Amino acid sequence: MYSHDNNNKTYYILHIMNHVKIFSKILVKIRRITLFQLLWIILVIIIFTLWMWNSETVEENKHNPVILWWTASFPGTSETRYCSNDIKCDVFSNRNISDLYNVEANLFYASNIKFDDLPLPRRPKEVIWGLYHEESPRNVEEMMHEDVLSLFNYSSTFSRFSDVPFPLQYLNSFEDINNMKYFVPTLEKNKYLNEISPVMYLQSDCETSTERDIYVKELMKYINIDSYGICLNNKKLPNKFTEDYLNKLHDDDFLHFIARYKFVIAIENGICYDYVTEKFWRAIKVGTVPIYFGSPLIKDWYPNNKSAILLKDYPTPKMMSNYITKLMNDDTLYESYLEHKIKRLVTNAKLLDEIKTRPYQIDALKSATEFECYVCEKLHERRNGKFEQSIVNKNHYDCPKPLSALTLEVNPLNSWAYSFETAKQNAASIRKKIMTVD
Questions:
Q1: Residue 239 belongs to what H/E stretch?
Q2: Is the pLDDT of residue 38 over 90?
Q3: Alpha-carbon torsion angle 188, 191, 196, 199, nearest 10
Q4: I want to staple 287 with a disulfide (CB 3.0 to 4.6 A). Which of 26, 317, 341, 438 is the partner?
Q5: What predicted TM-score, i.e. pTM, was given to this entire model?
Q6: Average pLDDT, stretch 277-295?
Q7: Alpha carbon of 18 to those of 13, 25, 28, 29, 35: distances in Å?
């Protein structure tokens, strides 16, 4: 929260106590006061005190640029943000402050954005708009289109081309990559095949733009798969995981449970450049081989040259099953996908550099703070006469029309392909409406 001089705090406390004493004396004299009247008097005191406090705060902090998170809930910042190079900004999450301050930047958490509730008129030369978005496009489909993206000046997303990127948001730490805590050696995994299938599929969302259930159902024709969750379920989770299992996916017991499998199907619910979720990183963490479909740039984040099996390399379920069978019969070939565990080796310089350069990205709140400071720096540059015409483009959140995991092409009958076009029209309408408001 904002810092205040101790003398000012003492003054206000004494000031409030004085008001309370005065009103107490009045109440003593008024014998027939009602409860409603009493509550009304207390409310007046509170409002008056808050008004005086806010007035003093405005006076004390009016020299700092003001940033407002227009959307609700996340990240909930309300403090002076101290950033590098000795700059600072006052960051709020309460819209009411716009009556007290000159807001110079509005930030938006995309998952909570409402396009019919925006701070209009846009005034791009006076007020910066910043976009923070870590989720897949299914939450706000209009964000897949440049008509909406270009309403913003700066972004913080999972894309490496964002102003404050966090492509490794689901990798908790470098240690997760080569830590042996959950790893099950290949010979032991082979013994488990008497109890479980070689492949595990875990899901909770049955209707995805990538049609992953359709793919897995076809793959099941050729190879045994243990499918847990509510979709394509053919095996029950142990009792200790059944209750609220979605909140146990990172528990030690559950990770040990997954680690017994030789392969895990990791198909994202959206195809976006650099959108890589826990589906991939959880497999890397426990030491099982992910069968992956998602970000076209996934190889940039492999620990080593071979760390996953991609659907595009074995583009039909039959071809994939043949390759899995080959790995099942060749432990040496199988273990070539697990060098980050068996040899404790990470050779991908790009991954190592990303971890070192942007340590903030493993924590959503730290990423938001980094973004706040980035925007804060831009505000100070503006005040110093440096005006940068920056507009977010498609590269900042690159999510093309969804592809089917089964065909690796757009399925025109997929409802998500239809909604992509609908969202495109909506995005154009939203932009037109916003840019024509005076």
A1: helix 239-242
A2: no
A3: 60
A4: 341
A5: 0.83
A6: 98
A7: 9, 11, 16, 17, 22
